[in-house]
Design brief:
The complex is a heterodimer of chains A (158) and B (796). Chain A has 158 residues and is an alpha+beta fold. Chain A is 32% helix and 16% strand. In chain A, strands 2-1-5-3-4 form a five-stranded mixed beta sheet, with helices on both faces. The longest helix of chain A has 14 residues. The termini of chain A are far apart. Chain B has 796 residues and is an alpha+beta fold. In chain B, 27% of the residues lie in helices and 24% in strands. Chain B is built from 18 helices and 28 strands. Chain B has a seven-stranded mixed beta sheet with strand order 3-5-1-12-9-10-11, sandwiched between helices. A five-stranded mixed beta sheet of chain B has the order 7-15-14-13-8. A four-stranded mixed beta sheet of chain B has the order 18-26-27-28, sandwiched between helices. In chain B, β19 and β20 form a beta hairpin. In chain B, α8 crosses α9 and α13 packs parallel to α14. The longest helix of chain B is centred in the last third of the chain and has 28 residues. Chain B starts with 17 loop residues before the first helix and ends with a helix. Classes of the chains: A alpha+beta (158), B alpha+beta (796). Chains A and B meet through α2, α3, α4 and α5 of A and α1 and α16 of B.
Chain lengths: 158, 796
């Protein structure tokens, strides 16, 4: 049995027929073809699949695709606008906040919501807010620096 | 053509690979999409040890969407996965015992499963879902057998036997050093002897990207392309073609695209990539497999897992007279690709450390158990050696009532460059161990800390400091020597420089980046050497179809071995360029010099031709020297004359909560000496990550098997403690620079230093904090609150 789903991803509308058991992350990667969202575990620990769904940072492995029917989603591919990097992306680049790059899309999407909630987070708050995202390369030092850089370079909210 | 005069070697430039990663455009193996793709799901043993009476695949085969189901019996003509390091071939090394049980390791085991996760069948289907569903329908008739998982129980009387050819589960016995001299040191009048049992627990690498492969066989051409999460694609190709499948190497292309971390675990040839390659040939369709994290825990080669009895003999004034080490190393159920090398030639040879110890003897027994195979994990043998030595130095200081900094200073090998012969076979290249330690003490302000610690104790707070003064061995070479130690491969590296007609440069390196940033550091090296803008340089790696045969990246070898191979090709390009330039400038080649991106006649200002013009001439050779080949492209293979030996000194401060046993890391300071540094930003990043992994071994990580069932209890990220951001501090990093005389770049290696140094620094700090409570040793890591609390209360 397949069910219809329709959602907006990075401003574009997609509709498919999917198995009810298909996870949102696999839908995004395999069906829509946006492979920037990664799968690093099967127990929702690693956070590599973090996306924004209706403005909330969520792990795309914790939803079925059918649960996202009608949702507005942003993935890592939708963050840079008109070829211009978002300050968080720029911060990860400036501060060497990535090595192998596999956790990076999830880290950046988690940081996106973090900075919406806490525009000037302390080091302690950044570390606490990242507890749902694992990195094995950086020891987190430069990820913290990257998010601090982004906080300092975010355009002022109107 | 633009030229640059600013030196890039040594500059912290941003990484050139990052734009694709921060925008979600990285291309990892699981991102590979091929027309007609099929998906593999493996049927694995739920038992630690069980005989296979039979496998019924009928229900799985008739499941909708299933293309094929294969068991080990179907894979006729396929050989065992090879072990690439044969200790029996070790020769001309004093004290070495030659012995190894080369047991078979079939891609799909047909007789018995020997660890949880051992694959016994594969289902290939049109969709991932169908493959997984059908795999559940494969019925294996298991006869469960007794299992043994613990390192120190493997050879106990009555322990389960894994292999017919390995009595007592002994894979090998190995020894190194001078036993008689060591015995004599322990009999010196007035010696103090400290003896400790030291357990270095089993770890899982946990690269964030799970292992994956996609194999595509083209029946029309007979070509097989394998995308695989590999740190060394040529090695994968060679082992798979020549040893396992018996297929022509030149018809196989192995591509390791963006790879999401390795830490050793992606060096080895694994069952799944062999099975998928074989199945794609059989079916004529592409076959893809990506590990779940559970599969990663059960099948990625694990690391460490040593049980050691160590004895250190010291003179009354604290000089290290003799070190005797007996280690049992758990190799798991089979011999992984380089497994025998890790607890022997990468471990015993490092037990001299940075100290002028007078005599050393080490014995290692490698044992099989019903656990996942163990092989190189970040540091591979060197962290285990450093841990033993650094714990023993601290234990020695406590036994003598000496300060832990003083005992180190007393025993450092004096500063040298060129050669220091150790008692354990290797010869160090250059070192200034006291220099790094002095710098550390200065940054750390040791005296001030001891005062703070004493003051804190009066208020019931337990603070502790731990030092680790380590040696690391990287760029293992030359091939002749590693061959004599038992290696089945050489340990050189390739580097090809292709100058295009427009003066653009593509460099092909046999090294492989899975986070190390080669596209940046190697480009810095090339742009700097040729005096051209970095934008004119592109680095290609990870594709056997493009790159000359190379050995890949592990053991912190890329800059020193891979970088030097590129440098050799650059030198050749320059020499040929001089001949072309000499012709254009109507001068003699010996009068041509190269600087700032142009060839010029020495001493004749203005008489010069830019690099780009020479490149164009090489490809449009109208006005060209007679007898010179057209083109400007050079290939080199660099086989180093010796290892490189980075070193350094780390310190950390912990606070232990006496009520709960919780350890908090308050400060971490690292002074590393990795020789010359090409990109400090990247080197610091690697040091940070290494420290995190080393700290995590000391405090949190450990693979745990249930002794009764042989189940891997820590089989998911819920159960295995990969550290999170809020568990770690900012790290203070600094350097001393002692270039190696081994290679022309003077670079040593930086990928593993943090992992080697951090574990003993943290454990030493915890023991220091607990000294007031009468604790002088904790046998087993990780130092969980339970263990620390137990150590405190055992003494009360």
């Amino acid at each position: 049995m397949k069910l219809p789903v329709k959602m907006t991803i990075n401003g574009q509308t997609y509709s498919h027929e999917v198995e009810p058991r298909l996870l949102l992350v696999h839908y995004i990667r395999e069906q829509v073809g946006l492979t920037g969202t990664h799968v690093g575990c099967d127990t929702s620990q690693c956070g590599a699949c973090t996306i924004l769904m209706n403005g909330q940072a969520v792990k795309a492995c914790t939803f079925f695709a059918v649960q996202a029917d009608g949702a507005n989603i942003m993935t890592i591919e939708g963050l840079a606008k008109d070829g211009e990097l978002h300050p968080i992306q720029q911060g990860f680049w400036e501060k060497h906040g990535l090595q192998c790059g596999f956790c990076t899309p999830g880290m950046i999407m988690a940081a996106y919501q973090m900075l919406e909630r806490y525009p000037k987070p302390s080091e302690e708050l950044i570390r606490h807010q990242l507890e749902g995202n694992l990195c094995r390369c950086t020891g987190y030092h430069n990820i913290v620096k990257a998010i601090q850089w982004a906080a300092d370079h975010m355009p002022a909210k109107r | 053509m633009a030229t640059v005069t600013e030196r890039l070697f040594g500059k912290s430039i941003k990484r050139r690979e990052d734009p694709r990663f921060i925008t979600g455009r990285g291309q990892y193996v699981d991102d590979v999409k091929l027309p007609g793709m099929t998906y593999a799901a493996f049927v694995r043993s739920p038992h630690a040890h069980a005989r296979i009476r039979g496998i019924d695949t009928a229900a799985a085969r008739s499941h909708p969407g299933v293309v094929a189901v294969f068991t080990g019996r179907d894979m006729t003509g396929v050989n065992s996965l090879p072990c690439g390091w044969d200790l029996r071939k070790a020769k001309n090394i004093p004290g070495v015992v030659q012995d190894l049980a080369m047991v078979p390791h079939m891609p799909l085991t047909a007789d018995a499963a020997r660890h949880v996760g051992d694959p016994v069948a594969v289902v290939i289907a049109d969709s991932q879902g169908a493959a997984v569903d059908a795999a559940e329908k494969v019925r294996v008739d298991w006869e469960p057998l007794p299992a043994v998982t613990a390192t120190d129980r493997a050879s106990a009387p009555g322990a389960a036997q894994l292999h017919a050819d390995a009595a007592g589960n002994v894979a090998f016995r190995w020894a190194l050093g001078d036993a008689a001299a060591t015995d004599a040191a322990f009999k010196t009048a007035g010696v103090t002897v400290v003896k400790k049992r030291i357990v270095n627990q089993r770890l899982v690498a946990n690269a964030m990207e799970p292992r994956a492969c996609a194999a595509r066989f083209e029946p029309a051409t007979g070509e097989l392309t394998l995308w695989v999460t590999s740190q060394n694609p040529h090695v994968h190709r060679l082992l798979m073609c020549a040893f396992v499948l018996g297929i022509p190497e030149h018809k196989v292309r192995v591509i390791a695209p963006d790879v999401g971390g390795g830490f050793g675990s992606k060096i080895f040839l694994y069952n799944e990539e062999v099975v998928c390659s074989w199945a794609s040939r059989k079916l004529g369709r592409p076959v893809r497999w990506t590990a779940t994290r559970r599969e990663a825990y059960q099948t990625d080669a694990h690391g460490r897992d040593h049980v050691t009895e160590a004895e250190l003999a010291l003179s009354r004034d604290g000089r290290m007279l003799g070190l005797r080490v007996k280690t049992t190393a758990n190799l798991g159920a089979y011999l992984s690709t380089f497994a025998p090398a890790v607890p022997t030639f990468l471990y015993g040879t490092l037990l001299n450390g940075v100290y002028a110890i007078e005599a050393i003897h080490v014995e290692v027994t490698g044992v099989f158990t019903n656990t996942t195979p163990v092989d190189a994990y970040r540091g591979a043998g060197r962290p285990e050696a450093c841990y033993v030595l650094e714990r023993m130095v601290d234990a020695g200081a406590r036994a003598l009532g000496m300060d832990v900094a003083e005992i180190r200073k007393k025993n450092f090998i004096p500063k040298f460059s060129g050669a220091f012969q150790t008692h354990v076979a290797v010869t160090y290249d250059s070192g200034d161990y006291a220099g790094a330690f002095d710098k550390l003490l200065q940054i750390f302000d040791y005296k001030k800390f001891r005062a703070e610690q004493a003051e804190a104790r009066t208020r019931g707070r337990l603070l502790g400091v731990g030092f680790s003064t380590y040696i690391e061995a990287c760029s293992i070479a030359p091939s002749k020597v590693v061959g004599a130690l038992g290696a089945g491969a050489g340990l050189y590296e390739s580097g090809k420089v292709r100058v295009h007609p427009t003066g653009m440069v593509t460099v092909y390196t046999g090294s492989h980046s899975h986070g190390q940033g080669h596209e940046t550091t190697f480009a810095q090296l090339v742009a700097d050497d040729l005096g051209i803008p970095i934008e004119q340089v592109e680095i290609v790696h990870g594709d056997t179809g493009a790159v000359p045969f190379g050995m890949g990246t592990y053991g912190s070898r890329s800059a020193s071995v891979g970088g030097t191979a590129i440098k050799m090709s650059l030198d050749k390009v320059r020499e040929k360029g001089k001949k072309i330039a000499a012709h254009l400038l109507e001068a003699s080649a010996k009068d041509i010099e190269y600087a700032n991106g142009e060839f010029r006649v020495k001493g004749v200002p203005g008489k010069a031709v830019p690099f780009g013009a020479v490149a164009l001439t090489a490809y449009v050779p109208h006005n060209y020297p007679d007898g010179l080949e057209p083109g400007l492209e050079e290939t080199s293979f660099y086989d180093p004359s010796n290892f490189c030996f980075p070193f350094g000194a780390h310190a950390c401060v912990v606070e232990v909560d006496p009520e709960t046993g919780t350890v908090r890391l308050l400060r971490y300071v690292a002074v590393d000496d990795v020789g010359n540094v090409i990109n400090p930003l990247i080197v610091d990043g690697m040091v940070h990550g290494g420290i995190a992994q080393g700290v995590a071994q000391a405090l949190w990580e450990g693979a745990v098997y249930d002794a009764a069932s042989g189940q891997l209890v820590t089989g998911s990220m819920m159960d295995y403690a990969v550290p999170k951001a809020d568990m770690l501090p900012m790290y203070e990093t600094d350097r001393t620079v002692t270039p190696t005389p081994v290679n022309p770049l003077g670079v040593k290696g930086a990928g593993e230093t943090g992992t080697i140094a951090a574990t003993p620094a943290v454990v030493n700090a915890v023991v220091d904090a607990l000294a007031a409570a009468g604790v002088d040793h904790i046998e087993t890591m990780p130092l969980t609150p339970e263990r620390v609390w137990g150590a405190i209360h055992a003494r009360r």
